[in-house]
Backbone:
């Protein structure tokens, strides 16, 4: 792939956006490559967690040069949402490691991840309003659910750019890295990758469907069936036997 680098190590997959000269601006081709990479990783049996990051910066938004003269029909065809939704539904834990800028579509990409880690020096925001547009890659839907309605509206109305620390205070990111968000994400992903892939995937499905379900009783019922289904797995037997035998479990992801 021209605009992405993908690698896998110790159960952790990395997707790195690689258009550093333009601050990893999200071109149509880059987003199509991301779609393909996600499709491959969804089927990769050894993967237990995914880290999304950028070379230098995270991403400074959609590539403005590709859309300046677009008509509404062309803008519609440019949509990133199907790919960002695919990322949000990725069957295993996802982490956005935000070093440098995460602006506009770049921040919307990070919002489609389960967990966001930002470097203290990171700069995050939705500056679309300053371009005469508004967020259009899931930001208007995901941001209020992440930080609350009025805070999301204030960010979108002003286009204000936040520091890592301000983003942490707002709940826009979950952790702050003193130095490198990528290094911090690696530590977190390694911790996650110790778990059973089967259990991690079931947990993510249950949380996401519980989050969408307005009726908590119904969500708990659905959780119960997913929970019970895990008792057909090798990893459940291994995890519990290992506890009783006072040893570390050796999960086989089945
Ligand atoms: N698109 C295209 N090129 C970009 C972008 C971008 N988003 N961001 C940076 N670049 C380019 C610059 O034009 C420049 O190119 P060149 O070297 O050829 O002049 C190069 O990257 C380096 O940029 P700067 O010289 O500006 O670097 P600085 O370090 O001084 O500044 C900033 C970095 C602050 C990130 C600055 O470049 C900037 O403000 N970028 C634009 C940020 C922005 O407005 N993002 C929102 C874009 S719109 C959007 O994301 C809509 C999302 C909805 C999408 C819906 C589906 C399609």
Residues:
């Amino acid at each position: 792939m021209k605009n992405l680098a993908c690698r896998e190590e110790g159960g952790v997959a990395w997707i790195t956006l690689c258009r550093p000269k333009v601050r990893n601006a999200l071109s149509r081709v880059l987003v199509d490559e991301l779609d393909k990479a996600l499709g491959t990783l969804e089927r990769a049996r050894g993967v237990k967690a995914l880290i999304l990051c950028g070379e230098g910066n995270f991403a400074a938004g959609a590539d403005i040069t590709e859309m300046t003269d677009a008509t509404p029909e062309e803008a519609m065809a440019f949509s990133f949402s199907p790919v960002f939704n695919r990322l949000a539904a990725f069957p295993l834990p996802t982490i956005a490691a935000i070093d440098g800028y995460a602006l506009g579509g770049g921040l919307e990409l990070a919002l489609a991840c389960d967990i966001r880690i930002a470097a203290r020096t990171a700069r995050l925001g939705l500056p679309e309003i300053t371009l005469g547009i508004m967020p259009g890659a899931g930001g208007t839907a995901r941001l209020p659910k992440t930080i609350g309605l009025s805070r999301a509206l204030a960010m979108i109305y002003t286009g204000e750019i936040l520091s890592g620390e301000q983003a942490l205070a707002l709940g826009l990111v979950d952790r702050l890295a003193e130095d490198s968000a990528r290094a911090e994400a690696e530590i977190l992903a390694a911790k996650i990758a110790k778990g059973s892939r089967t259990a991690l995937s079931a947990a993510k499905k249950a949380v996401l469907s519980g989050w969408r379900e307005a009726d908590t009783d119904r969500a708990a019922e659905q959780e119960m069936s997913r929970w019970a289904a895990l008792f057909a797995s090798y990893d459940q037997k291994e995890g519990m036997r290992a506890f009783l035998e006072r040893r570390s479990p050796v999960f086989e992801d089945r």
Remarks:
- The pocket of octanoyl-coenzyme A is lined by residues 22-23, 25, 60-65, 78-80, 101, 103-105, 127-128, 131, 135-137 (CB under 6 Å).
- Strands lie at 4-9, 12-17, 49-54, 94-98, 101-103, 115-119, 123-125, 162-163, 175-177.
